[in-house]
Amino acid sequence: MEEWVGLKWHDYVTRHAMGEFPEHAVHLKDEARTLGVLFRALGGDPALSLVTAEPRHFQIRRRFLQKLAGTHRKFELAWRDEESLRLPDRLALFPSSQVNRELYLWLAALASLGEIHHHSWLQGNQAMVQELLARWPGLEPVYQRLVKHTLQWRPDPDSLPDHEGRREQAIRQALIHPGSVMELPDALTDPWPVVLWLYPVLGRGQIKGEVIGDDNASSKPGGLAKKRKRRRAERVDAFDKDQGLMVFRLENLFSWSEFIPVDRAGDDSEEDDADAVADDMDMISVSQDRSEASSAIKFDLDLPSEENDDLRLGPGIHLPEWDWRRQGYREKFCCLQPMLSKDAIPGPLPEHLQRPARTLQRQFSALKPLRQWQRRQLDGEELDLDACLDRVVQQHQGVGEMDQKLFRQCKQNQRDLACLVLADVSLSTDTFINNNQRVIDIARDGLQLLSEALTASRDPFALFAFSSRRRDHVRFHHIKSFDEPYNDTSRGRIQALEPGYYTRMGAAIRQSIKLLRARPEHQKVLLLLTDGKPNDLDLYEGRYGVEDTRMAVQEAHRAGITPFCVTIDEEANEYLPYVFGSTNYVVIKDPTQLPSQLPKLYMNLTR
Fold this sequence. Notes:
The chain is α/β, with parallel strands linked by helices.
């Protein structure tokens, strides 16, 4: 405790007000990997985002120059909800880097137990501390060390007015002996923040004696602020992308420059003023920081026109969708529309693909069924000479039962496997990857080379593509069914593929599951090609889309289907392990290599 020698509380507070202990600061970005591993190891939700916590306002008492004065202060405190874990961007509360680092670890461990609410802030935190220490006794020394330092950091109860002093004494008692304090005495100001505890989602608590801060300094005491500031999420770049917490807010999968939500509110919106929002959406105001813009602008999305749309095959198929917030399915929530290109012109394989196609055909022809003789059959094409000779020997020796299986039959050694290839043809596939090629161009080449290879192996396969425009129009493009041959017609349909709308991945996967379930083969593979994350114009963005896609993938596993995702999205390592699992996806870093790599991936996957 050398750091504390000669450091009185008001001196400590003075240093804290002037910048804490910057020489002992620990930053979240440096600890993110460790915190993620710990959080997941202790049972925390791996889908939570790890983001920095914005400051909260407190009206507290502090002694300065021997006088008590009320002051508004901001503190970064830890909290979590169903979508994110918020931790301070920097911890420099204590004059020890090790202790500041242990505070990060303690908060992540405490958050792994769940969310805290306004009505249970005091008792809930004490109960969580007790549960955490009971589960993991090894954290007891860390907790005791943090309590010792925290008590040094907190104000002396004797230096506070009567009511505030009793409240401070109760908080100290709750820290030293968790579970011993049932309520806090009333006081006029907020209590000094309890840095070892979690705080509720931003907003002022309503429980008597538990005024614990507000994100709106102008709100009236004792009441919720009517308007809250937009939460700011910051990316933690140093996090290990394959482990632990997700390092981005699932609501902010797209940056401002990539995507601006302009959906009109409707039956999918959960806002109270959905109708008013819908009326205002014809004229919207946009600025990069989402503050008020100096002028309003009008624009519409560059979406494909329906004037020359593809042929619709039937009235549409209604499918469920998983709502992670309700933890249940919305039955018949999506309408999937099978489509067939009416502009597809049958044609041969493009010239630039013919040479690599011949190479793949030679390689995959080794996988096609081979004729093999099956010996010792009751019936067959010809006698099995070895079986006949064994029977003669048995006859002469007069031992054993006479073998009746004296024939052999020639059968083909079939690969008991079916594959459905599902390609994402959303708007993002219109992006150029070089001066000559778009994503959709390399996707078409990849589909054609893979089809040539699968034709040579004689594995049954089907080809479909998808995009979406809200839940009532999920486009499912028919290219080749399992029962159709792969020929110039199929090649023409691949060449006719163009960028469509958005990426409602769950519905497309569920329809693919239905088609694969009808196949008699023992091994069934769903191969998904995509260049980005699940998203759509309505609620299907952020965590909602990711969770629905993850549930559809789990449905595939339960149906005995192997789903595998191939993507060129550079950020896929941040979300695909959660959706598909750590071994069921691959990221092609150089998109131009997709056509040549796709058949190789299929061969490795189906061996």
